[in-house]
Description:
Layout: E1 5-10, E2 15-22, E3 30-31, H1 36-40, E4 60-63, E5 68-71, E6 74-75, H2 76-82, H3 85-94, H4 100-111, H5 118-123, H6 133-143, H7 157-183, H8 196-205, H9 216-228, H10 236-245, H11 251-262, H12 270-281, H13 287-295, H14 316-331, H15 338-352, H16 354-358, H17 365-375, H18 383-403
Bound molecules: s-citryldethia Coenzyme A.
Amino acid sequence: MSKDTVTIRDNRNNREVEFPILHGSEGPAVFDITHLYRDLGLFTLDPGFRSTASCKSDITFIDGEEGILLYRGYPVEQLVDRCDHLEVCYLLLNGELPTDAENKEFRRIVTNHTMMHEQLAQMYRGFRRDAHPMAILVGVVGALSAFYHDSIDIRDPRHRLVSAFRIIAKMPTIAAAAYKYYMGQPFMYPKNELTYAENFLHMMFATPCGEYKVSPVMARAMDQIMILHADHEQNASTSTVRLAGSSQANPFAAISAGVGSLWGPAHGGANEAVLKMLREIGSVERIPEFIKRAKDPNDPFRLMGFGHRVYKNFDPRAQILRKTAKEILDAMGYVYDPLFHIALELEKIALEDEYFVRKKLYPNVDFYSGVILSAMGIPTNMFTVIFAVSRSIGWIAQWNEMIGSDEGIGRPRQLYTGHARRDVPPSGLKED
Length: 432
Ligand code: SDX
């Protein structure tokens, strides 16, 4: 068998350079072009990084063709059945599932970091009441940097661990407070006796006026949503966190950049966009009209919740959440939920439609998470916030891996297509 290399020949001067092929433990091999520019005087161009691996990572593996998602080697389908979100947080951060003792200690530490600084709570008052909760989240998460000077020496692993605990513990509190601020209700403090998902729902829906019992079905569904959204390899927001963090900015600033990237409707904002789309469709009879628009290259309309850059098979998370959506609707007494009915019809039609089959556009995680969250009575403008709370462990685990590596600052190059050098007119103005 030929050597594990790739040879690139520049046909302009017949210069050939060999590049080593590197094999991971799963998935496609890569060829290492670290010295391409030095040896061949050429950059690569790959807008959107469709064929580019930006880093080595041990954390999450996706097989888009087979619809596989592994967190530290464990299939997400098994994790969602046998673990809760905090156990998955431990796994993503440390690389192994916790022992019983480690689990208890991890929970104890996270619990002790769940409150936010009272001054940070004051910050919300600077926002309009109708501010989108994601706008508040971007701001408040970034402001964490202003409160924790004792743990941002990122070269110190102990500081990195404290920052990880603070992000894991405080994101639900910050997110629930954004909802309360939007609703004009008082913030609720975390309750140490509740589980992570129960605590989040309690801070969202409880008021000081009386006891609020978190529905076990809702807590279970929220825990599943958090686990399924926890990490996803080098997606747009995670790549943003890694790049922002590579300048050695403090972790809270890097995570805040990730929150901003996740907000987009092509990424984490899709679950909110799915509900808006289902409401716009309004009835099963109107689905063909929207399918037609989605197929029209001149119409910018996309079927929100369909398609994925990597999954060209069913998103395994969507498979799990499809079942959860049915369970939650049954449990919440939704005999007939028009939105879910439209969603199921849309899924059925799209999966039979030649265009979607040919382009391998399957329902993704956002398609069903939007329906579940809606059935739980969560407003659509909180959907991406919940995605951000869930993904924050993935972001901090990936940031921690990047800081602990020898990658250094990320600094992509470009293909320059602008003006060649030219002189400024003596007047400093463009001549008529
Ligand atoms: C998330 O990266 C991640 O891992 C993200 C995520 C995570 O956990 O972090 O999984 C979370 O972001 C899920 C995706 C949520 N976004 C949406 O549901 C928005 C709707 N989907 C599309 O915008 C789109 O599918 C993307 C952005 C998700 C992917 O964009 P790509 O890579 O350009 O899509 P593709 O290569 O699969 O598209 C193939 C073709 C294209 O047509 P051509 O250019 O080949 O002619 O299908 C078309 C696209 O135009 N297409 C769609 C479509 N998605 C792609 N046509 C109609 N409706 C759609 N939803």
